[in-house]
Structure formats: C-alpha cells, structure tokens
Amino acid sequence: MRLQLALNVVNLDAAVDFYSKMFDTDPAKIRPGYANFAITDPPLKLVLFERPDATVGDGFAHLNHLGVETGASAEVIAAETRLTEKGIETTGVDDTVCCYAEKTETWVASPDGARWEWYVRTGDAEQLANTVASCC
Fold first, then answer.
1. N or C: which terminus of the chain has fewer CB atoms within 10 Å of its end residue's CB?
2. Which fold would CATH assign to domain 1-52?
3. CATH number of the domain at 64-136, please?
4. What are the tens digits of pLDDT across the range 21-46?
C-alpha cells in the first residue's frame, strides 16, 4: 500500500526536476502534460498534471501543506542535507512545537508553492501554534 497524491502544476519540467530532487528518484512515466513517480521511500505514488493556467488557489485551495514523516531526527537532517546539495532551498532543521507535537523539521516549497515538511515527531505538546524551540 502507498498513498497517491495528484497535483496540478504550472510547469511540468520544473515540477519533475523539483520532485526528482526532493524524493531522490526519477519519474516512472512521463507523457505530454503528465508525469508520475513510484516512490519507494516514503511509499508514495506522486502524479503531476501540467496545467499552465493553474494558480496556487486553483491547485492548492484546500491544501495546508504536505509532509514526509520520518522515523528519526537523523533522517530529517539527512533529507535536509540532500535537498540543499541538490539546490532546493530549505528552512534549515529546527526543533519545534507545532500542531500539538514536538518535532524536528525542515521545510521546502515546490515551484508551484506547495509547502512540504520533512519531520519526525519527538513528543506530544499542548500547543497548535508553531514555535521554534531550538535551531540545529
């Protein structure tokens, strides 16, 4: 089993480049206006539909953010290092309290503005608002 995520993107080439770097894998299929990835780690079927007329409100109106939950802080740090080395800007790795959890996290944004969080939950918290506890 794996989750499927289908996204509208303005520029397919830019999106394929970004997601290839982000998930460290090449697309399984590319066709005019379409690409899909069969990502092993994390298990995800990512489908991209090119819509040059799409806007952030169009494609992401009801989307807050996307995330990759890892099993350990070292995996977040490794992902952040790999993403940075591939030229994707990150927020850096921080220990935070957010969404009723303590986390170690880093964030990136896709070419179309979708916010992605790479994180590990390290504990529970009683706070919804995001607070940076410490910077790594």
1. N
2. 2,3-Dihydroxybiphenyl 1,2-Dioxygenase; domain 1 (3.10.180)
3. 3.10.180.10
4. 999 999 999 999 999 999 998 899 89
